[in-house]
């Protein structure tokens, strides 16, 4: 287990940095002359080895309220480069899609694209949507992947040569790097809380970062907890006994289902050689019941797996935030650790 003094240093550094940074804008752009920027939503990403496709989002960044999106066609070129491992010969653009909201219903539509014979280069045509009257605010370029359990390697896609008659620039980032997500904890895991004692341990650990847990009793939950570890981010989902009707509408078809309500705890994570850290933020609720502040938190744990990789045991040692990190003031601390064992979902 890591020395606890590291936590105090981390938060002291974070607070010092936050106090010194000035994020205010000195000038407000003139919305008549300030060009829109088309950018990638992220610079890198990853998915499990057996993933069959992956979407890269491109969007108009931070356009000012009242500023119209282009009503004429744009084109954008792409090239798939640096293919490594089993990605060679398997990666190409499958489709380019965007969503339109009409009358409380979501419609998925496609943009045209042309590709070279080897599929590694091409041009995307970003045309105005008939219902929107403009081009979409964002769209997703979906790439095919090998989809095998033994997939390895990665690739980079570079976007360039934006052609338009409108005041639109191709901003940064312009390249996206993909790799197989191969850390030990990646994927979906499930925990069954079977006793009231186990639930009290869960509340003791996570209650400080989710106020909704404090009001729950063992009878209020089904016992199911899922942990999903994706690229750099993860989520714990506690399923409640209470249900609700959820109505969705996609491509004109409406569907209503009864689902269990849930409580979610989200965090960024780092898993390395048996050590596991979670970093996130949690709300501070005032006397009036409203959120009055938000604080960053850090949880430290260790993890082990069985030889088959079918179980994941996480032993939590400490939970601190910006206001509670000194020894004796932690939100949670147990030198022996509290362990929860998840099974592969």
What does this structure look like?
The chain is mainly beta and 345 residues long. It has two domains: 35-180, CalX-beta domain (Immunoglobulin-like, Sandwich), CATH 2.60.40; 184-344, Lipocalin (Beta Barrel), CATH 2.40.128. 8% of the residues lie in helices and 53% in strands. The strands form two sheets. Strands 2-11-9-4-7-6-5-8-3-1-10 form an eleven-stranded mixed sheet, with no helix packed on it. Strands 12-13-14-15-16-17-18-19 form an eight-stranded antiparallel β-barrel. The protein starts with a helix and ends with a strand.
The CA-CA distance between the termini, in Å, is 28 Å
E-strand count: 19
- CATH C-level name of the largest domain: Mainly Beta
Number of domains: 2
**Spatial shape:** globular
Unreliable residue stretches: 1-32
What would CATH call the architecture of the largest domain? Beta Barrel
**CATH fold naming of the largest domain:** Lipocalin
Largest sheet: 11 strands, mixed
What string, H for helix and E for strand, traces the elements in order? HEEEEEEEEEEEEHEEEEEEE
Helix content: under 10%
Helix count from the secondary structure assignment: 2
Task: Assess the beta-strand content as a share of residues.
Answer: over 45%
Strands in their spatial order, largest beta sheet: 2-11-9-4-7-6-5-8-3-1-10
Oligomer: single chain
Q: Which class best fits the helix and strand makeup?
A: mainly beta
Mean pLDDT: 90
Q: What is Rg? A: 24 Å
